[in-house]
Amino acid sequence: MIFTMNGKQVASSHKKNNLFNPREGGNFGVFETMRTYNGEIFKLDEHLERLEKSAEIVELELQCLISEIRKYILKTLELCDFDPVRIKVVVTDGNVLVKCEKLEIDENIYNGVSVATVPLERRNPEAKSLDYLESYTAHYEAEKSGSFDALLVNSKGMVTEGSFSNLFWVKDGGLFTTDRNILKGITRQTVLDISDCEFKEINVEELKKADEVFLTQTTREIIPVIRINGKEIGDGKVGEKTRELGRVFKWSRDRDSNPGPHPYHGCALPTELSRQDKNSI
Ligand code: PLP
Predict the structure, then answer these.
(1) Any atom of ligand 1 within 6 Å of the Cβ of 187
(2) In what order do the strands lie in the sheet with 96-102?
(3) Is 124 in the pocket of ligand 1 (CB under 6 A)?
């Protein structure tokens, strides 16, 4: 693990390392979690933009320019001799902390995960702020009961997002996601860019009747959900549209660094592909 503070490497035992732990750290600050593919940070500019927006929402005055924060992140990444890397940056009113760790992913999640609903409305849902204790608690409670993540349900009974992920579902051939009072995920935006998706609100009972459900998140991309509160979704297997989107997502992710044929080149195009994408094939 590599840990830097304002661009200088410090020991992982440094007390400021606590800021990465929501149970121990203070809660005035903002953060981002990013990842690399072949040494490159995926959507770094978008993450930095969201960091700036989060700071605005919680009224945190950044003590340095975003360009400086970008330099600290890249400098920390240069010290890593492993890949892929999970990069977490925390910005408080005095410090910029960057932590890089080897990203390990349990590939079993791509066979479908279970999730559990939890009543929770996050304060400042559009900000990734250090005031995340409730989300962590919801997540750990869900994990303890064998779920991958918690699905947050607001006071009107509507499901908003996961505690660390965004929510999508497929019903009668249509693709849907929520749009209000959520963290606007970078992965969610990537899915919106490659698909025809509608914004909608949904309650738990309706969501359980969806044909397919999946979550999106920077580190793990598209995660199929096959069970909600113990109830199987569809036939209890990863749905075809979720698989298709996973393939197109990977293609779109890699297209800048490794332009290759579109996964649907010469094949029938799935309805999810946006007009823009169809034109680029
Ligand atoms: N929603 C919440 C509440 C999150 O904390 C996260 C990520 O941590 C997401 C959604 C997914 O966002 P992204 O795709 O940018 O990782």
Answers:
(1) yes
(2) 8-9, 2-5, 96-102, 85-91, 30-37, 40-41
(3) no
Out of 167, 191, 217, 221, give the residue to mutate to test ligand 1, the one with the largest number of ligand atoms within 8 Å of its CB. 217
Ligand 1 atom nearest the C-alpha of 187 is 14
Contacting residues for 272 by C-beta, under 8 A, at least 6 apart:
175, 194, 195, 196, 197, 241, 244, 245, 248
What is the pTM for the complete model shown?
0.91
Q: Letter for the amino acid at 20?
A: F
In the reported structure, the alpha carbon of residue 281 is separated from the centroid of ligand 1 by a whole-number distance in angstroms of 30
What is the distance between the alpha carbons of residues 39 and 74, in angstroms, rounded to a whole number?
A: 10
Our answer on whether the CB atom of 188 is closer than 6 Å to any ligand 1 atom is yes
Domains and CATH numbers, the chain: 2-102 (3.30.470.10), 108-254 (3.20.10.10)
> Could you read off the pLDDT tens digit of each residue along the chain, which spans 281 residues?
999 999 999 988 777 777 777 666 566 899 999 999 999 999 999 999 999 999 999 999 999 999 999 999 999 999 999 999 999 999 998 899 999 999 999 999 999 999 999 999 998 999 999 888 888 889 998 999 899 999 999 999 999 999 999 999 999 999 999 999 999 999 999 999 999 999 999 999 999 999 999 999 999 999 999 999 999 999 999 999 999 999 999 998 887 666 555 655 544 455 555 555 555 55
Catalytically active residues, by annotation: 128
